[in-house]
Amino acid sequence: MSNPSLTTAAPANDPTFENVWDELVWRGLVHVSTDPEALRALLAGPAITYYCGFDPTAPSLHLGNLVQLLTLRRIQLAGHKPLGLVGGSTGLIGDPRPTAERTLNTRETVGEWVDRLRAQVERYLSFEGDNAARIVNNLDWTAPLSAIDFLREIGKHFRVGTMLKKDAVAARLNSDAGISYTEFSYQILQALDYLELNRQYGCVLQTGGSDQWGNLTSGTDLIHRVEGVSVHAIGTPLITNSDGTKFGKSEGNAIWLDPEMCSPYRMYQFWLGTADADVVDRLKVFTFLSRAEIEEYAALVEAEPFRRAAQKRLALEVVATVHGAEAAAAVIAASEALFGQGDLSALDAATLRTALEELPNAPVAAGSTVVDALVGTGLVSSVSEARRAIAQGGVSVDGVRVEADDATVPLGLPGGVSVLRRGKKTLAGLLPA
Fold it and tell me: So what's the pLDDT on residue 322?
């Protein structure tokens, strides 16, 4: 098998599958759908137009959204035409959360986030060729609608009893928070999106998370009533960890796709931490590795789990997909160097700094003692413990063992930082004050 630190899989579908539908099913990406046999035939035929929507309820997409972005790309690679919808209007409302009402953001904030999400969505699609992608904003057709037109032309097709049965609505009705009319109406707006895209572009398939199934089927039902045709929806499963913990967060913080909100190094470390029980499923969902390659890694997980080969490949692939091959190479070099398998002084300054910021760290002035740095970073609890650790030969700075109590911090690595180590695996970052 090739060195995973050097190669990544090009975005491509596995040719051993007869139909992209079969590959989506094998990868575990179909939790629920409108009509599996019809969808399989549809995806095997001439190019169709399909879409997925992304609401700007935050300034960045996250790993849950990455499932949808990669699903869009897989279907496009099979020859179909994707529409990436950024919800300039639905983002002003937000889909109902299971427990509480969303805080409404200002129009200015939502507009700024629309632009940011649009740029993120564009990274995952091709805008060339016969099946070039298109980005659309639902504010374009929602803003001109008056309230009266909306109620007469769209609202009349919805039955309140049916709307109340949707999972997200039902959960909120049974909560202490209840649900506002604003969020209750969200499913109508999403249905309107599908209707408009069907009319403008002939769109016949929507993908989304299975937690959005009520909203997806609101669209298929509306099109059937208004246009008299059948269209389709695919709900991907919500990703969960085998141990019951929530997927997509590290130490309680979401793994965002924006490098300013989650550094490539932090993302890489998140994927390295994937449990053996989960890693094969993650390779299926989040990479373009072929079935044969994934089966090889599954065998390695069974035979040599201590090597973490599958986790390393997963981390490489996802970081390269999200941030580019150069960023992936830089974080791998930083990860290896920090743990004694590379040259710290050869690292990129920005990558090294972000890596150290993920460790226990402290600002220090040039000339500060290593003793003070040990205490300041929390690697020891007292000055006497710091001196004892140095005397026992268990402390190093930038890979060089500290021999004396009065040794000072050099801050000589790229970016004016240093790496403090106690023992073999306990690290801290020293940043310029």
Answer: 97
Say how far apart CA 366 and CA 372 lie, in whole Å. Answer: 12
- The alpha-helical segments, DSSP class H, found in 228-358 are 264-272, 276-286, 291-303, 309-323, 325-338, 349-358
Cβ contact 393:401 at 8 Å: yes
pTM of the model: 0.91
Q: How many domains does the chain have?
A: 3
How distant, in Å, are the alpha carbons of 346, 355, 403, 413 from that of 430?
17, 11, 19, 10
Structural domain ending residue among the three candidates 201, 221, 236:
236
pLDDT at 6: 54
Determine the structural domain holding residue 388 and report its residue range: 359-433
| Strand 134-137 to 81-86 pairing | parallel
217 and 103, same domain (yes or no): yes
Shared-domain flag, residues 95 and 190: yes
Interhelix angle for 264-272 vs 325-338, to 10°?
Answer: 70
Report d(CA 378, CA 376) in Å as an integer: 6
Question: Same structural domain for residues 60 and 163?
Answer: yes
